[in-house]
Write the C-alpha cells for this entry.
Amino acid sequence: MTNAASTVDKSKTAESMKVGKRLVELLDQGESLKAIEELYADTVTIHEAMSPGDVPGNEDLPPEAQAAHKEGFVSKAEVLKSNQWFLENHEFHGGSQDGPYPLGDEFVVFMHLDCTPKVGPMAGQRMDMKEACIYKVDNGKIVESKFCYSMEF
C-alpha cells in the first residue's frame, strides 16, 4: 500500500466548522431559508443521490413540483425556490441535525426528517428520511452540496 499525498487542506477546517455550526444553528431554529440566504454562494453545485427523473412517481407530480427539484449548477434563487416549495408541500412532524463534522474545505451534517408529502404519489404517506449532507465551503460560503440517502420504495 502506498501513501498518496493528501489533497485535504486542513487549514480550511476552521472556516468549514464555522459555516457548518451556523447552518446547524439555523436549521435547529427552523430557519432553512435564512440558512440558504446567509450561507450559500450566489451559485452552487447540487448533487442528489437520485436524479429527479429517477424518483418513482416523479412523472405524476405537477410541473411546479418537478421544477422544484434542482440538481447541478444552480443559482441561490433557484435553491430558495426549491426549498420554499418543499416547505409548502410537506407537513413536518419532526427532525434533527447532527454535526457539523469538518475536514478541510468540507463538512458533513447528518439530517433526519419526519414529514408527510401533501402532493404526488407519496401524498399522505409519512416518511422517515435520513441523509448525510456533504457541504463544500469557499470564502465563507457553501459552494457545493451533496445529499446522500437511500430511497427504497
About this structure: The mean pLDDT is 88.
